[in-house]
Structure formats: structure tokens, C-alpha cells
Amino acid sequence: MQIEILKSKIHCAVVTEANINYMGSITIDEDLMDACGMIAGEKVQIVDNNNGERFETYIIKGRRGSGDICLNGAAARKVLVGDTVIIMSFALMDFEEAKTFKPRVIFPGKGNRVEVKK
Asked: Catalytic residues, which ones?
């Protein structure tokens, strides 16, 4: 049996742009993508902590080091710049493997920057 579990999460990133005139998706700073193990084209679920919206889209790679979290197209209508969002991706895996799997979760710092713990 396979189950779907949390694979990666960007917890509490701040929306930097909402572009209704783009053809859909979410643009994420490539540093954030690398830190949590997400890739361009991957399906993600977005939760807006400010208004309760929950929706799915796919990732477009953003400029590295920019801190960009931009909702595009129809998704841009579900958020406001400055909203705090949680971005999650999921994976299918064997039930036994899922019991020990640890998702990659990051907590971006100021400006949606990847914080390195010392």
C-alpha cells in the first residue's frame, strides 16, 4: 500500500507579489526551493494564514537570493502581498517507508531568506 505524506514545507513565507496577468503558478526563490527539496514544475498546496485560502498550483523557479514568493494567474486572487503562506509538497511512498520518512521543513527568515543555523 502507498500513502501520500508531507515531503517538503516552506513554513510562514511572506507573499512578495501577486501577478494576475501571468499564466498561473507560484514563483519561489531558488534558494528556498533547494533548502526544502522542491523542484520546478512540482505540484504544491498553498495555505494562506491571513485569509484561510487553501489551493494547489505548481512551482516556477524564482531568482536565487531574491526572497520572491509570487502567486501568479488565478492564484493571485487568493492572496495579498504581505500575507503569510505555508507551501507544501507531498509524495507517495510505501506505508512502511513512510513511517520513518522525515519531511524537509524550512522556516524562512526576514525577507524570505534561508537562515543557516549555527
From this structure: 25, 58
